[in-house]
Amino acid sequence: MVTSLRVLGVPTSMGAFAPGQEDAPAALRVAGLIDRLRDAGIAVDDVGDLPRRRWTADPGRPTAQNVDAVGEITTLVADRIAAIDGDTPLLVLGGDCSIELGVVAGHARRPGRIGLLYADLHADLNTPTTTQEGALDWMVVSHLIGVAGSLREVTAPLLEPSQVRYFGVDQNRLTPGERDLLAEHEIGVTTSKRVARDPIGAAVEAVTQLAGCDQLLVHLDVDLIDFNDLSLSENAGRGQGLPFDTVLTALGELVRAPSLRALTITELNPHHGAEDGSTLERFVSGLVGALGA
After folding, report:
1. Which residues, 6 or more positions from 141, have their beta carbon under 8 angstroms from its beta carbon?
2. pTM higher than 0.90 for the full model?
3. Are strands 90-94 and 4-10 parallel, antiparallel or unpaired?
4. Going by fewer Cβ within 10 Å, which terminus of the chain is more open, N or C?
């Protein structure tokens, strides 16, 4: 189990398709996440939240919306993480997927090789030249490894493809550009079908593939969870993703890795859950159980 955590909130949706995720850190706190972690025997150092940034349309950069704001947030996150002493694992409460740019950048300032385990239904391997959607949370990995067409306003390349492994990606949901880049850069993939069959075995396999890394960063996009089972993700696709219990089982194994340095929760939109808070309560309970198992 995880015995201690630092908790940092990054309330932003600037890299997303629409607003909502900027309210996730506050909603998780109101739902009792910090107290529940402590009740589970986990020592928590809560370092607070960065400034809240809400998505807005950016017609001036239609294929890379809010790129300047995402760059600013990346720097803020990296600076905050770099200033934290010690190797206590960090629980980052997002926020859209673009906050991972700052999480990686902050850990890159520390000694030791990084391994990024990207648990997401999607590959986020797009660029402004391969998609017209314009949401930078759909382009995170492409910018971390610096593929052709990525934007230097956001971040310089921080990782080699061998330092990244996908976990739970549905290969039927890759864009054509992502298929090409995935093949070109040979990034390892543990598919959603593999996780569904054996969540613990798939998690052990994925961590083993990054065994040469000193700092394991786990990125969890809530859209890996089927919206029909837990209606909290930005992506409201019904019948997509995995059952909540399957994701929790895998997550509980992933966070057992001795090299764990960060778990980042992204794309949680609290406005999609039940008004009485029961959906968010279920998520908090499951997350605490996975961390404290």
Report:
1. 118, 123, 124, 125, 164, 187
2. yes
3. parallel
4. N
